[in-house]
Amino acid sequence: MVLGRIGLALAVVAGFSAVNGQAAAAPNHQTLAATPPMGWNPYNAFGLNYGQDDVLASADALVKLGLRDDGYRYVNIDDGWWLKRGPKGMRIRTNLYAIAKLPGGGASMRPFVDHLHAMGLKAGIYTDIGYNTCSQRWDKTTPNLPVGTRAEREVGSMDHQAIDVRDFSRWGFDFVKVDACGIADFGPDAPDVKNGTYRQMGPIMLRERPGASDLARVEGLYASFEREIRKARPGHPLVFSICAWGEADVNNWAPRFSQMWRTSGDINASWASMLHNFDSAASRSLFAGPGHWNDPDMLEVGNGAFDANHLTEARAHMSLWAVIAAPLILGLDLRKATPEILAVIRNKDVIAVNQDPAGHQGVIIARQGDGEIIAKPLAISGHKAVAMINRGDQPLHLSVSLAELNLMADGAQIRDLWHGSQGVLRDGVVSVDLAPHETALLRIEGRLAQPALRSPADMPARFHVTQVGYLPPDRTTKEQWVPARIGFLPSGAPITRGDGLETAAIGASAGSHLVVDLGGQFRTLRFTPGVKAGYGVKLDGKALAPHAGADGSVTLSLAGARRLELIAPPRTAGADTFIWHDLRFERAVN
Ligand code: GAL
After folding, report:
1. Closest Cα to residue 21, out of 209, 226, 256?
2. In what helix (H) or strand (E) does residue 68 lie, and over which residues does it extend?
3. Residue 266 CA, ligand 1 centroid: distance in Å
4. Which of 439, 38, 72, 481 is nearest to 275 (CA)?
5. Phi, psi (deg, nearest 5) at residue 62
6. Separation of alpha carbons 194 and 318, rounded Å
7. This model's pTM is above 0.70
8. If DSSP codes are grouped into helix, strand and coil, which group holds residue 453?
9. Ligand 1 pocket, CB under 6 A
């Protein structure tokens, strides 16, 4: 245990020596957020117009409705909790939370946190990485804005990371969400900066334009925040949730030192917004795993297009977050939740898919028109969760063969996790008829077709992108360039084989490094390099000199090795990307 912690500390320190996603540091494995965090946050239901009573009533509801025992444990307060930065740099509570209402309340949030802990819940708090906050820029009519002089109103963590994180830790919080408006929205053109209400900050993070942002500075600010988290309460750090909306290439560096990071802008309760946010995370299955999760934002189940009149959409939304191992942070007013909506968020089989201990994010294995199929390998070998998604407005028939899931054609059990029925399996093919916007979430319990062989799609959580390599300077946040993807090039273009995706292939940026945790469990690796020369392979840090056979494939012995590194040729070799085709890992033990 102690040794593990030292190992982690060294790995994270190594990460600080380089910036802009280029650090060859180990990823952030730990028991903190070993499965995706589950809980509740008021923002989607109330915006900033809520108070302590709403939060405590929601906490009560989590307990009384049984949601706490389903796993929804975090009660995370959002923007608006602050009154002002006090004389000694400490934060004072606002009337919003009226902490004084709780016995012992005052300048401390401790009574509030103690109250939640006594209920068997966990507590989350919120800050901004800049001087000022999102509400100060975008929600000027909320009654919960900070007050006082300009300096007192600077409630963000800039220049105060150590003192703020110490307060959050002393108060007993378990989770902190760190937003980014302070470094994005207080540039010289912001009206309230022009009139002197707020100090100008940068901007150092330009929305939609990572190539024009000060990436090293943004990463450095979040990295130092995490250092303070570890310093403040050694051995019991807060879960660190980065809310930089997929900007500043956050997806490429956050996995090294945070437990979850937003991959897109704010969700709203519409079908298009839900799909947009889902896509921003679904493309990044190689970046997630135990202790580090892609976060497509909090759930809208129960709200707008996902309310009790739209149960098909509500189930689809829940299925999609479950299959990509996204944090499940509820965003509805629990006091108004109908039994039908509660049945959606409390479906134990669906939660079990999300919380599966192997921590694999589901991988896109097929796209057919409005249809999309995502498969998530589960901890038990041969068991998979499969989401069959109809994104469109027309009914759709979708099918997937067990062979595409690397499973034996016979003997598989298939269960539809929403309707409890058996899925239709004929001649080794699973088929579903989907209504518009319907997702079928299936649990397939079968046997691996070749018991010793694993492709990347069978074990995405073993992969870590330790160097992102080439990034196009004109990339935008909307059309994300993903430095390593299963079945796709970084640009999003599919890598096809026959009329499907090649799911044993990884499309990678030139010069990228992928690390695979082998854990001493594999015997050989076979792959076919996209071009014959220029790539590199290291085993436990030692460079190998791979030779291709007559068919162009390379076979390497992995015997006993713990760490494999796959290094794409540098861009100077002529191409922006490189494909690792037909990656097949042969296990030494099953
Ligand atoms: C946004 C953030 C939301 C919410 C809001 C509060 O930047 O993405 O999740 O926290 O600020 O003002």
Report:
1. 256
2. helix 67-70
3. 7
4. 439
5. -55, -40
6. 43
7. yes
8. strand
9. 43, 78-79, 134-135, 179, 181, 243, 245, 266
